[in-house]
Amino acid sequence: MSFSVQDCQCMAKAIALAKRGKYTTAPNPNVGCVLVKDGQIIGEGYHRKAGEGHAEVNAAADAKQRGFSLKGASCYVTLEPCSHVGRTPACATMLVEQQVAEVVIAMVDPNPQVAGRGIKRLEEAGIKVRTGLMEHSARALNPGFLSRVERKRPFVRLKLAGSIDAKIALANGESKWITSAHSRSDVQRERAASHAILSTATTVIRDNASLNVRFNELGSLAEQLDETLLRQPLRVIIDRKQRLAEAAQDLNIFKNSESFWLAGHQSQTQLPAAKQLVIEDTPNFLPQLMQELAEAEVNDIWVEAGANFAAALIQANLVDQLICYQAGLLMGADAHSLVGFEGYQSMSALNSWQCLETRRIGPDIKTIWIPQAQGTH
User: Fold this and answer.
1) Is 310 among the annotated ligand-binding positions?
2) Cofactor comment in the record (predicted)?
């Protein structure tokens, strides 16, 4: 299917619009839309928040406010228009009613509730539909949503922070602070972009972690966001040995208003968790947890935990990205290691990763890695 330069420009604009919803749309996908008539952009929109107008509806409202009719217009949208009525009306039906002439779609929606039905609705109404324009870029907008729908588990990003020699604490346990304030601010931005933060009772107790987003630490991002719209990530704490109850009165996580979920082998009703995920004590615990989180419409997870849990996730093949912050320190052989693997006896047994990105964060280095097999597709 061929596309013109103008087609590409309009879809690129729609993709840029979709990115504006990065911090607010979950569990819905990020979607952008551009409406064009007689070679002129007449409306723009993006999906801002679940329960509010979809990108197509917002673009149509923008066109109407500018004084334009959608009749005969072309619609460029990053994801197939929905055909079902949920928290908002069906976008495909709206486009039919507004008599648009053509809809150009970057990617078909893999969600079974949509999955080609939006396209069918449009074509049955005589609207020309073209698909596949800048599909790779459109998929990159929503790795979490696509992982949940296609793989039945959230997209998992594991945060690691350590020294040049891959250590996270001195032998006596001291660890504050290894990385700089610049890196810690970047972690706040990564948290803000995440649907959920996953940690363990061990980490929460040791660090007295709140695991929330602190608006005053977002740096330049705070200038771009409305604090009232900022979505606090869902906090999921694994407590398999019921350790939190013993320390509850002293922990910050129980002192702020954002809800958290508790995962373990039995319910702990004495704790104020919004949801209890009770999972059998089997080797399949982590995959089962991921499945349950996906069923609860959790798209992506940012993991902040200790070396042993990091190793367990990696060995279970549940990590899609490693986000590594490296400080300019050397901490010595007796310091605690970044990941708690047991010693390997064969090079062929090692986990292999491909570096996607390297950049400086103040005095530190941030790298993003994906599993090697994933990178060779």
Assistant:
1) yes
2) Binds 1 zinc ion.
pLDDT digits (tens, 9 = 90+) for 226-262: 777 778 899 999 999 888 888 878 888 887 766 789 8
Which CA distances in Å does 56 have to 36, 71, 136?
Answer: 12, 14, 20
169 Cβ contact partners less than 8 Å away, ≥ 6 residues apart: 175, 178, 331, 335, 336
Has residue 83 got a pLDDT over 90? Answer: no
- Active-site choice (56, 150, 292, 342): 56
Contact 156, 30 (CB under 8 A): no
Among 11-20, 209-218, 311-320, where is mean pLDDT lowest?
209-218
Cβ atoms 10, 42 nearer than 8 A: no
Q: Which two tokens stand for residue 281?
A: 């004590």
Q: What does each C-alpha distance from 24 to 15, 141, 194 come to in angstroms?
A: 16, 13, 10
C-alpha dihedral sign at 329, 330, 332, 338: positive
- Find the Cα–Cα–Cα–Cα dihedral 31, 34, 35, 39, rounded to 10°: -160
User: 82: annotated binding-site residue?
Assistant: yes
Q: Is 243 annotated as a binding residue?
A: no
Q: Is position 10 annotated in a ligand binding site? A: no
Closest CA to 278 of 287, 245, 288: 288
Per-residue confidence (pLDDT) for residue 244, from 0 to 100: 87
- Residue 122 assigned as binding residue: no
Q: Where are the domains of the chain?
A: 5-140, 143-375
Task: Choose between 289 and 351: higher pLDDT.
Answer: 289
Q: What CATH code is assigned to 143-375?
A: 3.40.430.10
The CATH homologous superfamily of the domain defined by 5-140: Cytidine Deaminase, domain 2 (3.40.140.10)
Q: Rounded distance, CA 258 to CA 273, Å?
A: 10
Cα 148 to Cα 370: distance, rounded to the nearest angstrom: 18
- The partner residues of 275 in beta bridges, in order of sequence, read 261
Of 281, 270, 275, nearest to 241 (Cα)? 281
